[in-house]
Q: What sequence folds into this?
């Protein structure tokens, strides 16, 4: 078993901002999506629709943290990834994890969802 995708629901104006964020920061691509009768996007990475976006006026930021803490993605190239975050003005923190031989980069999307990029050490 593996996780197939994540789904993010947001009002239409925020959904457009979120789409741009995931395409620029995670370098996902807007791709084919079935017609569900509700506006949305499927964002692809490695040929798979990993992030689904769906318009919803009833979703919003929670006042308190929820049970789902974050979503993590794997990348390569720590310097290139953090340079992209810097260029796009995304605040982040880097936590080296020598035990796993990775660096973890923590940041948030425009909806306030916590994201993590796991990047193997390059030595």
A:
């Amino acid at each position: 078993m593996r996780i197939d995708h994540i789904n993010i629901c947001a009002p239409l104006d925020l959904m457009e901002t979120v789409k741009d964020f995931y395409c620029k920061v995670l370098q996902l691509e807007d791709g084919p999506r079935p017609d569900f009768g509700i506006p949305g996007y499927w964002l692809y990475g490695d040929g798979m629709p990993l992030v689904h976006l769906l318009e919803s006026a009833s979703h919003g930021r929670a006042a308190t943290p929820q049970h789902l803490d974050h979503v993590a993605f794997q990348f390569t190239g720590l310097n290139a990834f953090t340079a992209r975050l810097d260029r796009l003005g995304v605040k982040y923190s880097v936590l080296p994890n020598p035990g796993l031989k990775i660096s973890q980069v923590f940041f948030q999307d425009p909806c306030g969802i916590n994201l993590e990029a796991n990047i193997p050490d390059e030595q």
Notes: The mean pLDDT is 94. Strands lie at 6-10, 29-31, 40-45, 48-55, 71-74, 92-97, 102-108, 114-120. Residues 68-123 form a domain with the 2,3-Dihydroxybiphenyl 1,2-Dioxygenase; domain 1 fold (CATH 3.10.180.10).
